[in-house]
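hey can u check if this looks right to u? its 790 residues, i copy pasted from the old doc so theres a chance i mangled smth
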Amino acid sequence: MGGETMTRAAHFALLMLTVACLLPAEARAQGETTSAIVGQVRDTTNAVVPGATVAIANLETGLRRSAKTDDAGRFNFPQLKPGAYSVKADAQGFEPQQNDKVISALGQKQTVDFTLRVARSNETVEVNSEAPLINPENANTSTTLNTSALEDLPNPGGDLTYPLQFSPGALINTAGSGNDFVGGTNGYGNVEFNGLPALSNGYIVDGLETNDPLTNLNSGLSTNLVLGLNSISEVTVNTLSYSVDQGRYGASQINYVTKSGTNQFHGNLYELWNGSLLNAADYFTNATPGNHKPGATVNHFGGSVGGPIAHDKLFFFFDSEWVRIALPIVTPTIVPSTAFQAYVLQQLSGGQTAGCGSSDPNENCLFYQQMFKLYGNANGTPTAILGCPLGAAGDGCANRQSVSHSSDDHEQVQTVRVDYNVNPKDTAWFRFQSDTGLQAAYTDPINSVFNALSPQPLYSFAAGHTHVFSQNLVNYFNPAFSWYESLFGPSNLQKTLSAFPIVLQGSGANAFTPVGGLDNTWAQGRRASRFFINDNLAWSRGVHELRFGTNIRIFRLNDYDFGEGTVPTVTYANLQQFIDGVANTASETFPSHLNEPFNFLNLDVYGQDTWKVTRTLTWTFGLRDTFNSNPLNPHDQVARLRGSFSSIPHDNQPLNTVLQTHLGNLFSSTPVAILQPRTAIAWQFEPKSVLRTGFGIFSDILPGTVADLIGTNPPYDKTFQGGVLGSVGGTAVAPGAPNSAIGAIIAANQTFTSGFPQGQPSLPPVWTRTDFRDEFEERCSTVDCHGEWN
């Protein structure tokens, strides 16, 4: 029976190694949720003891496994649930020994050696010494924090990723946060390792990747905090992951495992509160007449409970976490004074002293009249503004305010886990988590009709199954799934646009606070579904431990950022343009769809050998093969140049001759395979010191924002610019007014849409820098010019 099992194992291992070398796979390693206990049994003469029985028992759940030592006295228990264990060694003719202080940490191998004495009685010798904290079994440079350490660390906000900053090699980025977008100026995330960007950090909870797939960062949801820390039993930060069964990211991989129920009931309750009652208002809030100190409340509370359903068999754990945040927002604003509003309406109505006239009202005047009604309070400190026709010092046109608001966010996380010791050869666990909440995405200082919200639900499921084929062959299967939504915009966008259909903003220090809020960015966000299948086979063969595994990620992204810019943005360059209702620029985007789906497939296989060369020297080497699919848009709404920028003609020509359209894939091609060999040595050259060194090739995956960068190309996503500096004409600010800049943009889009299939020439280029435009117009006053690709 043993020979048949070994033969099947050899065939399976050979098949997996062949797959690891030949099949395309991806650069995403398997999230670690297990641990291991290894060791050697010797006698007092330092001779090895083969055939000894080594038994382990989980002190919290009663899980038991046993194994016989091999010819060199070695034993190995892979794929264990992290936790506290009792390890007992027994051999014929020797006194049994037992160590009840063995802590098997997440993603680590814990070495437990025994020295048996010749039997003189039937008593079991208790070993009181704790297992060594450092040993040469681990190839990775890592830091492990257990429940007690996580509870003792100061952690404002209870953020799940905050403890990472205490790991060696961590660089705290005080300018950034977990919610920075790729390309932002804040530094991409709040922690970096070994000089690599935060985009290269992987956050894995119970084998489920929790990185925001759009940015690859450790983004939080409604409260911008990554909640759930009270449900975490242990976290391991691998700052250097030379083991190929980990290290799916180029910098670090952070593995979390949730708490489980035990044979004893346990739980906790907590609450943290901070309010505005103890906080003073700032100077500018007090300086504005009629203003008030904004309310501020942070209430973070929750608790957990776990215990047995059936002793030594079935266990449950439940955690509930709630956060209520009302943060003060004090916004300095500049608003048109009441006198200046009347002056502007009089100018636009042709001298009418009341309203915009009744016989033939001016569209610009009516538009401004509607806009001025949105100012609930035009009082404040008079402020001089360049070109102001009112006031002795030009300070009768604008008032400076300090507007106080409160931004209310709330989030709640519920976690349920069930562990099941099926039999001595099979164990399983299941974990479900619900994270829901509402974020005040934007609070407008002019009018609350422009406020924006973002409900951000996330639902995830993960499971694990460990099967012991034999004492030397153990498999761990770990599937997972998550779905989340993060959409931003007003609660009723149509109502908001009925109040004001554009965003009007000025340039320079003399501009009024924009009207229309951030309506030109709504709706934006994403929906993301991810499926994971992880499998890891551990096979012990003498001084070798072979590991073969695979990880599959199927990712579906619905990108709503294509809707940005569909609400027109109109600008004015000086106060006179504002008075006259003249648009310096006006821009609007016309996407084929407000959102586009993109499908990603990531596949990874690997093979690895950990060779115990001597008692103090371990050599780990392996190969990871990576395949990242070419992101696919099932609507075939991708366009790109027919060649490199330098290879295509640059003279004036129809757009459809240089653009490929109706494409599904974002890229023209992607690598078939990315081979990543890695090797590492851990050498315990003296009892309290271990030297680790290694070499490896790593790869990262592209964040989902690549769809924004490549997918927003014409003819499927088009932006036109009108106004004085625009290329399509129109000067009036108000939509619907004669010579409206918005009307000119709409006409340009209609012309482009109908002309593109027929190969009509492109419209004049959109100039975004006035110095280029002025230079172009100066040159074109004397020579014949044509639009060119730039």
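Residues 1-30, 177-187, 762-790 have pLDDT under 50 and may be disordered.
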